[in-house]
Amino acid sequence: MASQSSAVDLVFHALADPTRRAVVQRLGKGEATVSELAGPFDMALPSFLKHLSVLEKSQLIASRKRGRVRTCALQRDSLMAAERWFVEQRAVWQNRYDNLDGLLATLNGE
């Protein structure tokens, strides 16, 4: 459980930044080189590489190097871990709202 929580923490940390979210969104369309990913952002390449490092540490992306070209791809399993967390939270809160609805109905004499 602790490792799952840690993995989800890394994913949410990675997605907390708009640059990293944009990279994940772009990689949802398919693989891209680092140059292609960095192009839309007004920042130095070393700064952009730090963003990629955070994404790789969270296992949201993976990269491979061929010659001088580094290509990145989305790792969907980590996104699915975050999605599962949201589903669990939705179920908890839905149950709480259902309980509140029942209590309010009882108080109103329904």
Structural commentary:
With 110 residues, the chain is of the alpha+beta class. It contains five helices and three strands, in the order ααβααββα. It has a three-stranded antiparallel beta sheet. A hairpin with a 2-residue loop joins β2 and β3. The termini are far apart.
In short:
This protein has 110 residues and is α+β, with helices and mostly antiparallel strands.
Q: What distinguishing features does this structure have?
A:
three-stranded antiparallel β-sheet, Arc Repressor Mutant, subunit A, 110 residues, alpha+beta
Query: What is the tally of beta strands?
Result: 3
In the predicted model, the low-confidence regions spanning at least 5 consecutive residues are none
Q: Strand portion, in percent?
A: 5-15%
Major sheet characteristics: 3 strands, antiparallel
Number of helices: 5
Overall average residue pLDDT = 90
State the helicity in percent bands. Answer: 55-70%
CATH topology: Arc Repressor Mutant, subunit A
Euclidean distance between termini CA atoms: 42 Å
Radius of gyration from the alpha-carbon trace, in angstroms: 20 Å
Number of domains: 1
Q: Pairing-aware structural class of the strands and helices?
A: alpha+beta
Strand arrangement, largest sheet?
Answer: 1-3-2
How does the overall form come out from the CA principal axes? elongated
H/E topology pattern: HHEHHEEH
At the fourth level of CATH, the homologous superfamily is Winged helix-like DNA-binding domain superfamily/Winged helix DNA-binding domain
